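dumping this here before i forget
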Amino acid sequence: MCFPLGRAMSSLETLEPFPERAITRERGLHRHRPFVLLWLVQTLSQTSQNAVNFSLLVLVQGILERGASLPANTAVGVAVLSFSLPAVLVSPLSGVVADRFDRRSVLIATNALRGLAVIGLLFVEARWAPLLALLVVYALAFASGTVGQFFGPALWSLLPNVVPSGRLVQANALFNLTFTASQLAGFAIIGPLVIKLVGVRAVLGATVALFAVSTVLSLLLPRVPVERRPGLLGRVLIAQVWYEMVEGIRLAAGHRVLRKAIGYLAVATATYLVVAALGPGYVTQVLELPKEDIAYLVLPAGLGVLFGTVIVDRVTRWLGIERTADVALVVGGLLLVALAELPETLGRGPAEVAGAVVLAALLGLADGLVRAPAQTLLQAEAPERARGRVFAVFFTVSNSVAFLPVFGAGALSDAFGVTTVLLGLGVTLTLTGAWQLLAHRGRL
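structure:
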């Protein structure tokens, strides 16, 4: 059951610059029913999960106001830990499940179980003792977060099976756009605004309905045959599962393209978190605007991601998938350097703000041109029977390093300044991308 680690796989060849006439014969993705169904499942599920996560913070805050003895920041921090910790603990196992079972069935189960967890939150009563209510909320958050970790590997592993030939890059770009939009919708729209209008229980009830719709839509997805494996019990099963998890790690670490794709995706995630963490400080300290004006950066960046979704297919057919990611990483690094040097270049005032708006839009574009090609490489190079485990390795690495930028960036910016941290990050990304470009050229 070992995979040849050094063998070059042929699947990537079909994904490099694709003949235009072969692509135009395919129907558009919006008319391809299996893809649309999976896209809707992703959209509804991830928006619901982000809304639930925000609602958990509101629930905890409400319990604290009734007289819980825990310090407020500690209680909220435990809530965040409850739904984020499973991302590190369970991700390796989720890949084994995605490869052992029908991925459609995994999506059905994860949507249904998360809906049940939210129903449990609706039963938390105001008359309960505050400590008991907190413990129940934390337990349900942890359960929902744990189940949710099985959703990602199954979803991204199933995507290549529902996409027409030659459309995988575009499909990944659309999924990335939806992922970003679901975060904004769940935390910036449904969370703060809708809860204020209708209350947290109404929002939780709506997410139950959305998880139910996602479950039904998952039922309509096509079945993808999986390799049958002998039924095992007890210690033998535990040993086999452990072996398969290790095998997935060995496969991802031993294959150059897989290793590079996982690294690029982790770097893109970490960079996004660093910029998000430093954004308010950049707006107030560098642009000298009120913190509420962070929309000057967020909105252009979102539009940049949207434009990247539109053009990524053409760019990858022109440059090739791997080279597109390399170039985009270099460009993203240079844009961060430009953002750091903006006050020295344009001075204070409207010109500086206008420059920041343009650079934020281009950063969003560069982010999209890194993520979609890297995810396509991951899907193309991973064997079908191990694709879930390879994605699980990515989720484990990405979730593990995600904690570091948020805390580290804030501490470094306090010590050295926001622009210094952005400059250092930009130089690091530029050199990494340039090194990969030179290495790629040497292999041609």
